[in-house]
Fold each of these.
Amino acid sequence: MTTDDPAPTEGDVNRSPLRGAWRAGLNAETRALLDDDERYFIHQSLSTPCLDVIERAEGALLFDVEGRAILDFHGNSVHQLGHGHPKVVAAIKAELDRLPFCPRRYANRPAIDLARRLIELAPAALAKVLFAPSGAAAVAMALKLARYATGRHKVLSMWDAFHGANLDTISVGSEALFRRSIGPLLSGSEHLPPLHLAKRFFGGDDQAFARFPDYIDYVLEIQGDVAALLAEPVRWTTVEGPPQGFWRQVRSSCQRYGALLIFDEIPSCLGRTGTMFACEQAEATPDILVIGKGLGGGIMPMAAIIAAASLDCAPEAALGHYTHEKSPVGCAAALAALNAIIEEDLLRRACELGRVGLERLAAIKARHSVIHDIRGLGAYFGVEIAGSDRKAANARADRLMYACLERGLSFKLGGGNVATLCPPLVIPRDQFDRAFDILDDALTALP
């Protein structure tokens, strides 16, 4: 795979030409474990082969087999509370002793309490929930609910979006994944231009995002029978969002033509952007909100949909039907995570980290011409690396990532050339500052 392969739009493509030298620097035990990992696991295009072996984790730090400490500014976006938050761990241990599993035909207190808490926190129009064991499963439930509720089957989504890797989600998600799978056999999906390419499609002036909603309105009108528009309120992979008012216009068009608006906030929910949900800043409440990642407190696999009560119109529909859909242990972890976010004032902390982080990045950008742009959404940052062309920018960003890994900082590359920095909201200030020092030092050493 080359560095300009389409797959890097999502990130985590560990097939860099630099990987060989990186692997050679690991000790024999680590290399042997990585060999076993490759031997026994089915390879996946976006996450294998792995780069290292992690032995334990605590707070913002990962520790590998060789004892190296790594600042985790990646975390697959699950670690708002860091790794192993004591309140989440305690809740899991207590529930394991009380009710480790609940068959689906029975209710249980942790599930009911979590549903109530999510509805209390969500925008007022959203009043019904379902739980799922993964974000992709939750997106699939949202799509199924939209089709049941509207009696339609078509879905609008955006090229380069990633909503999960099951058959339902690849049929509406990333162009590269869709093309390389049996996704084309699944009908009913139409694609819109991605948010970050608005100017390419709708004019290079400052009116591109004024024309884009008009185009979406036209597509909804001409298609006539769209069940839902599925989108991220902000493009998480490259840390980009549309201007204020964009989603409000799209929301209006969806209502006009009877299509539901589904927001995929799987990575962006639960405080990262400085509000509990990113849609609170988008001036638009969706009909269905999909959340996941950090919902399980960075430990349990938990996701959910939160929907308008009016969509609870098909009680005979099996939207989820998962063995672990009301997991007492998972729900206890999620409830503890939500309570910790509120009790520890992490929404305010996300805003404060965001302010400090952008100040640091502005100073770093002034010293390094290889940085094309810096962006931030709460405590989530994007550093876009420049190059003579896309391939050169991707290769330079790849070198930067490995240089930071050598210095003890892990992050994700999105879109091929955007270093995305996603710290835990509980990170101590000295570790937060250290991460930006590492980035600055690695940029200085970048050939």
Amino acid sequence: MSTNQADLDRIQSTVANSLHAHWRLFLTEGIVLFVLGILAIVVPPIATIAVEVLVGWLLLMSGIVGLIATLRMRSAPGFWWSLLSAVLGIVAGIVMLRWPLSGALSLTLILTVFLTLEGVISILYALEHKRELSGRWVMMLFSGVVDLFLAGIIFAGLPGTAAWAIGLLIGINLVFGGSALIAMALHARNAAPAGGS
């Protein structure tokens, strides 16, 4: 048991020393993410199109790789399904790259469905916790209500919300992620290396 604790202590010490030694890199990454997040929030349609183009390229490349692999294994079971899947990826990628705003509408619909399901599940989870007298149920309930509220706003404004919803949410995510990295970097800068000064 003490060997496991010694190993754990050594790993924690190594991580702390690494964070302390490289805090400037984490700070730089945090600032870049924060600035990109602010830009995405200020101009969400551009961020939405950037996400759309990225997804389009991913679908196109995965379709091409899938097509090459499928054609090399013609005798494998499920050849036609694999071929259809590869062609579908290529077509979807081309459509998303050629007409990014139509793809943004599809992604926004998926996001709306996800937020709706996540909201309902969070509310049911919160009510289950309330029954068990857990003190965390109020925040879970609030989170579920916020998810449903966001889904409602996005859905009510379709197709207009497709131009900004994804970009805005990506921006918010980048701001919070960047802020967390900045806080971690500043903490690591001030922390003494483990096992040292």
Amino acid sequence: MRVGLALPQYGFSLASGEIIATDAIGWAQRAEALGFDSVWLSDHFFYSFARYGAGDEPIAALEPETTLAAIAATTDRVRLGILVECATFRHPALVAKAAATTDQLSGGRVDVGLGAGWFEQEFDAFGYRFGTVRDRFDALEDALTITSGLFGGADPLTHQGRVWSLHDGRLTPPPVQRPIPIWAGGKGGPRLLAAAARLAAGWNTVWRMAPEAYAEALSSVRAACSEAARDPATFGLSLGLYGTIGRTEEDAENAFARARASFPGDAMREETWASWGFDTLSGSIDQVRARADAFAALGVTDLIVSPWALPFTIAEPDQVDLFAEALTGG
């Protein structure tokens, strides 16, 4: 099982309360040195915790495609991806072109993640139609069809979609990888898994999941693969998890208490150590290792750590070191 790190990307991601591109680059280099297999960004124009009762002022965010290209040029080994690019924000041919260029810069280390999008405030702010869930999934299916076709070498490619279309499209110059892996990201409903089984390397979901719930979800994965006449053994499983870790469980619980206190608004007001540990990657080094092993036994191919209670946040650098010790030997 490969282990990845969610990189700092937002104004809340570091203790300083500020973010610049070199922060993400530096942490990608650190992750590589610690033995992580991959590093990941996400895709938002800005972030907000208003839905949790915090202020609605937009929080700064790095643009992921350009940041990923910079990371490609300054690392040597780790795989590079975005969990996940919103299918409505860019024509999928542009996503494919950017990924192909970054794949060349990195020597063939790019993964592409695509999702339907959920944050209505940023759609409205930047002039994108939010529409219905069905509308956004129409865009996602078009994006998966076009990117998978271009990555697979189907030149020229024509696709007449509900949202995105392409007429005799070509991906030149091509990426190093043929094809670049694509992850379809989301909660795992029937439409998402059906599209993933037909058009993607695998399925990604984040950021809280217990092994028992994940095992139940896999029945839907197997059904989608069967419907698509796909061998489930060829279908990747990517899981991102929050977590707090310590050398002892008491240390990890104390880190959780600090993480809970740092969360804006009231979303974690009722959270306890028991409820947090139930569906996150949390505990002592041995407990974290055992939880990771449980997911590996279920077939998870890629485990991505977000080492705090906030997404893409490194509030305490020691947390990254301890997760590396537990999961990568770093």
Amino acid sequence: MWQWSALRIVPLAILLAVVRPVAGATIEGTVTDASGKPLENARIDHIGKRVIVVSTDLATKPSPDEIRTDSEGRFRVTTDVPAFVVRKPGYESERVRVNGDAQVKITLQRITSTSRCKLSVPPHFKTKQANDVDYTATWYYIDTKTGPQGIISGSGPTYSWGAPSDKDVWKSADYSEFMYDSGVVDASGHSADGKYWRLRSIFGAAAQYYNQTRENAELLDCVMDRVPVKLR
């Protein structure tokens, strides 16, 4: 039986405990690289507004309601969300938990490796087309102890906004992310009950898996590293 997707159901009590907002917290901070140099135009995302990430080739200006660091790496945000992400092309992103008013110093590290594969021999995968009227997509799947499991990679005008959902950022018990120089966001995490997910995305295109065991996620990560994320 194919197990391409499953409802991501989280018990209400757990969800409320994890994503319970902090009323009107104000966070002031600075963002630097490992040498202490201020990073200008770093993004402050998932603060309760829609996040759209486009290719850096497009060189689009931020919309008026988006928050970016200034020339000295400083930012200020008032929000009622439980966490937000600081990201900039070419760096490992940082998720910041919100527990009330705070002043923070954030150091972003340059990306040294984009692979999440931990296996010496990556698994062989098969493919299956999954096109629809408004997008093109391909399943990349492998055989596992729990049956066929896969990654879907697709593109289309409204296929992806280019970033993980706010809830995935807020509720994941563990979260990690890279933002490639191209603008592609590679995010992963797992829920409190041990369900793993990963998403590589840019506006209009994404590759992703959800609701996986840790063992299956490690296998799929080795496939994901070889799956393209590209526009039509």
